[in-house]
Batch of 2 targets.
Target 1
Amino acid sequence: MSVWHYYITVVLMISAAFSETVQDTRSFLKETLSGDSVKTKELFALSVEQKAKLVSVAERASDSAFTFYFGKDANGKIHVACTVVPQEGKEGPMTIGVCFEPSGIVKSVRILEYSEERGKPVKELSFLNQFVGKKTGSIFRVGKDVDAVSGATRSSEAVSEAVRKASFAFDQFVAKKKGG
């Protein structure tokens, strides 16, 4: 094994050691979609133009697709649309679940996995609930309409960017199909 391969292996092992699963995706979706009689999922691939627009609102975005999970009533009308967004944090990868009402209002934001040592407070509802009730067209930027966690500004910015990405995807794909 070369020195380079050894170095990468050690970095990955250290990163995994600090990674924490707060809530797995399955239980997040089960909790969020529990009141709906019909649950569906749909994958939406970004076009080249959509990727460029996404990067203009979320500078570090490298997403090529978004999967939305829908909670619907018996008639197929959407009650809630959720997506799980990968996001690069300050110290490693994060996974953030974001749910929307059909009108584009943020219903919930949850940290599912993260690797932030100093940014641990971003997983707390006291931070995450500030996104709830805002419309997808909101700025979602620290210092504008989002208050950062003291000592965890970069982690706060990462969560804000994930919500911007999810909001962008909602507007691009879900807002057009509100009825089902």
Note: The two ends are 53 Å apart (CA to CA).
Target 2
Amino acid sequence: MNRKEALHKLAGSTLLTSLPALGFTSPSANSTFRDDFLHRWKTARDYSLKVLDKMPEAQLGYKPTPDQMSFGKLFSHAAHWNTFFIGSIVNQPPVKEPEATSKAALRDYYLTCHDQCTATIEKLSDHQLDQTGYGTHEYWQKHTGRDFLLRALTHTAHHRAQALVYLRLNGIEPPFFEF
């Protein structure tokens, strides 16, 4: 089984497997990747905000165990690190996490970060998607721009999934999944 077939079986996603042999070298393939990614990125924003909105303000500090992040912190953390991942491609520092923890402040911060990331993604060239060497740490420098985009989307899904569990643990039915 080749890499493309393996990824298709694992991910079941045309986002990864529709690009020619996963070489990502064709400018039209990269533009298709970016456009496909942007659609999913914007859907992830809308769904994440619906999840945030479901938790009552008084429960934003809820944590299932002392070592876990609070419900509200899941959203500020995801937004902050997504500005790091996507900002790394254009040498832009991450947006500082807010000190305020109200639902309105968290929502505004999440939207600010997401909008900044979206504006960056919309301007990325095919070369930036293919290139490596971003950031100052050796670990990050081996990743392509595309890797940073996928990391941000996966990071969002990871922490949103935690938030969905937190809702269920509080007897709140999560919003219907959107992708």
Note: The domain at 30-169 is CATH 1.20.120.450 (Four Helix Bundle (Hemerythrin (Met), subunit A)).
